[in-house]
Amino acid sequence: MLQEWELFTGLIVDEPQSTVKEVTWIDNSRRPAVAKIQSNLPTLFNNLQLTDQGTWNEFSRAVDCENSVPAFIEQKITPFQKVLLIQAVRPDRLYSAMQNFVLKTLSIPSVNPPPFDLSDILRESSNQEPVLLILAGGADPSQELEKLAANTIGLHNYTSISMGQGQEQATIDAIRRASTDGQWLCLQNVHLMLSIIPVIQKELATVTPHEKFRLWMTTEEENKFPAIMLQRSLKVTFEPPPGKPMSSWNCQKALNHYI
């Protein structure tokens, strides 16, 4: 429901009149959040039966309270309403509650992407097609790529250039050398220098690359990234490994079931 989404995202800013004093087991600092549920989602508030302290005793004492919602209450509410509950009374457990929500809604075993293996990408790549690694969530594939290069062609045949002011000629020279000698070239953070993309395209169009030549590029998500380069590249999204924040794509996909 739209109103639930607006409450979750903080779009509802009106201060409720009620202080929900009858809900005795919650921390005083959480009363305004619970009162917002009461005033904006009265049916949900009634279904939660928060005024019945006995019902919520175990929940209130649990460290992982998101896993201790009374079963008969959970049957009355949706998975997203459960997230709203945790956000209101125990925001310190919201991340875990969101993980549970995504897993349940999408029926998947983990919110983390499968282990990323650049060697699989290498097998799909060719000397005619740049590999564009789109970085998400602060991911950095540089070490993995360097290790793959060391094991495949040797580090003496691998060059990495960080994009920035004054790198245009160095990039042109590196493309010409790598494509002729069958080396790998990695252009890092090309989103910082989008003006060089047409130059790269022009160089790639004029060379006859060695069969071992590979051009790797890394970029953060960028709406202004030239479409022509996107179309001619092998595109891969590189996300953080398990233990880092959950995939935003998975989270948004789960939320789409409710908004």
UniProtKB/TrEMBL annotation:
GO terms for molecular function: dynein intermediate chain binding; dynein light intermediate chain binding; minus-end-directed microtubule motor activity. GO terms for biological process: microtubule-based movement. This is Dynein heavy chain. InterPro entries: DHC, Dynein_heavy_D6_P-loop, P-loop_NTPase. Residues 127-237 form the Dynein heavy chain region D6 P-loop domain. One of its GO terms (cellular component) is dynein complex. It holds the Pfam family Dynein_heavy.
